[in-house]
């Protein structure tokens, strides 16, 4: 009940603007349950120092929205590029669902105006930070899905994000993997990636650079490109995928361990005995 009251309070004072310039007006969609929109716009930094449950932030909705975005983007690419092989579709998808691309699309909604962030984060330019805008974008998609379902999310993406696909995948300045990796590893692992040039091959006009990424002493992704900058971007892209997969597997292992511990506590050995003891009892009958 306390959590619901908090969200309603946020909603009342910040989000539901029925005049022409509210976020719902920009989305072209009015929520049946506007509390979902309120929840989607609470960054974790806003809760720092407040007596509010951590679950009031938008990270769960972001998690949901991320999965929906990936699925609908895959569907869109499959239909739009029928002759592309799997590898090319993956490259396109990586660009379209990247934090940089989502942050750019979020600006059509002026999303930075509506996100609730902490004072410290705001002083550091948090309202314009790509990671915060991208996460809020995904959280809004998650909120729309819960409010109306998949078709409504697809419609919003087709109006605001997918029309930009061609410019996203061909933009010469679309080289943000290094910054994404830096932000991710600093936040999750408190470390900074390093790049080492492994080789420089080929004639002057057709050189191929090979670069490897390191996190601490551990080598991760290898990237290649026509210059060192692009090779580093490619290495960062590969590394980001690898590190995220490692983190996901680590979290799954922790959850499995927790569930196993809970199960063990629910079945005391003194009451039920071990499995082997139970089978012995059956065999003796």
Question: What does the model show?
Answer:
This protein is mainly α. It folds into 2 domains: 1-174, Orthogonal Bundle (Ribonuclease iii, N-terminal Endonuclease Domain, Chain A), CATH 1.10.1520.10; 179-285, 2-Layer Sandwich (Double Stranded RNA Binding Domain), CATH 3.30.160.20. It contains 15 helices and 3 strands. It has helices at residues 2-15, 23-27, 35-40, 59-80, 86-96, 99-106, 111-114, 119-123, 130-148, 150-160, 165-170, 177-189, 228-266, 269-272, 275-283; strands spanning 194-201, 208-215, 218-225. It has a 3-stranded antiparallel beta sheet with strand order 1-2-3, covered by helices on one side. The protein is globular and about 60 Å long.
In total, how many beta strands?
Answer: 3
Give the class from helix and strand content and strand pairing. mainly alpha
Look at the structure and give the mean pLDDT: 82
Low-pLDDT sequence parts: 270-276
From N to C, what is the helix and strand string?
Answer: HHHHHHHHHHHHEEEHHH
The CATH architecture of the largest domain would be: Orthogonal Bundle
At the fourth level of CATH, the homologous superfamily of the largest domain is Ribonuclease III domain
Instruction: Give the helix proportion (percent range).
Output: 55-70%
